[in-house]
Amino acid sequence: MTEERRSDLSGFYKKSVEERRAVAVDWAGLSEAEARAFDFPPGVDRATLERMIENVIGVFPLPLGVATHFRIDGRDRLVPMAIEEPSVVAAASNSAKVARAGGGFFTQTTPPIMIGQVQLTHVADPAAARLRILEAREALLAQANAKDPVLVRFGGGARELDVRIVPSERGTMLVVHLLVDARDAGGMNAVNTMCEALAPELGRLARGRPVLRIISNLAVHRLARARAVFPRELLRTPEADGAQVVEAILDAYAFAAADPFRCATHNKGIMNGVSAVVIATGNDFRAIESGAHSYAAWTARGTGTVLRPLTTYEKDADGNLVGSIELPTAVGLIGGATAVHPTAKAAVKLLGVTSAAELAGVLAAVGLAQNFGALRALATEGIQRGHMELHARNLAVSAGARPDEVDRVVARLVAEHAVRFDRAKAIIDELRGAPAPT
Ligand code: COA
Q1: How far apart are CA 113 and CA 158, in angstroms?
Q2: Alpha helices in 37-179, H assignment, sequence order
Q3: Under CATH, what is the fold of the domain 64-110+222-382?
Q4: Which DSSP category does 82 fall into?
């Protein structure tokens, strides 16, 4: 009978990385070679990574690609993207090349205002309590700002109060929104600290009980926008002229705007690009994903659908396709992993952004590029050709194809519409068994 393996490894966190690794390797019966996949690569600041999270046993490397052809607000940029999915970096580059011919991407951002929430329950007179809190606005903002003099010195800080009356299954709640200008930070620490500091006074003013005090990822005030022209003539395919492709893309867009099942995937495709840059620059990709998808729902209020595409497509007066995007972008360059993670620091330098707003503009441009790339492929040849060709390359290599065999294996997999590991292996065997061409 095999001994039961137990996960209650109390004190695991007190061990060294090596000791923890040994426990995990033994626990799972990993071979030496398998365990080496957790190794810290040379050149990476191990001491920093070891301390970023708990119970570290190694690293998880993701490929870091660079998207080319991007011209954003008149400036050329190479865009670092960390992602596991093939064809994303190629599609972003391809779209940026088309947009470049139309002048590139033009971006803008709103001030970096984040929302902190303080929940107050058991308030007897919510309407009056709301006003009592608003009457104390000046003092409350001053009290919040006293918590972060550094942010204030850099021109940020608590700016405004909003008080909402929110009915719930546990009775009516008062929800105070503290609007904080986070400048070049993501803002989480500043906002949470301020909310925790204000909560007792808010409780007194409302004569209620403060419960949660936490940032909202639905950062409706901290938006980035981008627009680009995709010249009609560049959209031509062997089967369709540019004008027809424009119409097909507009149909694809209308589908997303009308149908939440399509819209979920439409917006996911945008985040393929956005999240890859967010990860590469060491920002909190869950916060950005949550913000984007909840913004898509927020903007759908009252429209008869439950999700809106984060992008918009139109045809300009010359018949070119014009795309635009608007999404929340709570990213920072200071205060988070961006400032300490060695790879993120290098990626930020490669991208050449010096403010959170600049990074936010890049994210919007990449999101639009990614979405255009996917829509264009979907509305013409279908996603599988471009995507599968690149996926087939991965498969061919992992099935053991030598560099001189890869192209032939990929061509066969794609032609057979059978981009599968077993088929790749069979084709390699066939190629090797076949007599040499004369
Ligand atoms: N690697 C990196 N970039 C690539 C690439 C590759 N394998 N293939 C194409 N590109 C980019 C390059 O920027 C290239 O311009 P350049 O040669 O001046 O550098 C540009 O695309 C155009 O190249 P082209 O060979 O004409 O591309 P294509 O028309 O065959 O398009 C895809 C190939 C993959 C880019 C395209 O099919 C696509 O965008 N598909 C959508 C994929 C997608 O949306 N995936 C998301 C997940 S499903």
Answers
A1: 9
A2: 46-52, 88-101, 126-135, 137-145, 149-153
A3: 3.90.770
A4: E
* Axis-axis angle for helices 242-258, 260-280 (nearest 10): 100
Ligand 1 lining (C-beta closer than 6 Å): 68-69, 85, 87-91, 93-94, 97, 272, 373-374, 377, 383, 386-387, 390
pLDDT over 90 at 37, yes or no = yes
Residues of the chain with CATH 3.90.770.10: 64-110+222-382
386-431 placed in CATH 1.10.8: yes
- For residue 429, is it left (φ>0), alpha (ψ between -120 and 50) or beta? alpha
What's the pLDDT band for 438 if we cut at 50, 70, 90? very low
One DSSP character per residue, 263-290 reads HHHHHHHHHHHHHHHHHHTT--HHHHHH
Architecture in CATH of 113-216? 2-Layer Sandwich (3.30)
- The amino acid at 352: G
Q: Which tokens in the block code for residue 75? A: 């400036």
| DSSP-derived pairing of the beta strands 157-166 and 209-216 | unpaired
Which residues of the chain does CATH 3.30.70.420 include?
Answer: 113-216
**Which string of b and e fits 175-204 if b means at least 16 CB within 10 Å?**
bbbbbbbbbbbbbbbbbebbbebbbebbbe
Active site members:
85, 268, 284, 387
CA distances from 176 to 120, 155, 258 (A): 8, 23, 34
The predicted-structure confidence for 38-66, as pLDDT tens digits, reads as follows: 999 988 889 999 999 999 999 999 999 99
Q: Ligand 1 centroid vs 88 CA: distance in angstroms?
A: 9
Using 50, 70 and 90 to split pLDDT, how confident is the model at 376?
A: very high
* Tens of pLDDT, residues 106-125: 999 999 999 999 999 999 99
Measured between alpha carbons, how far is 244 from 209 in angstroms, rounded to an integer? 60
CATH 1.10.8 range(s) for the chain read: 386-431
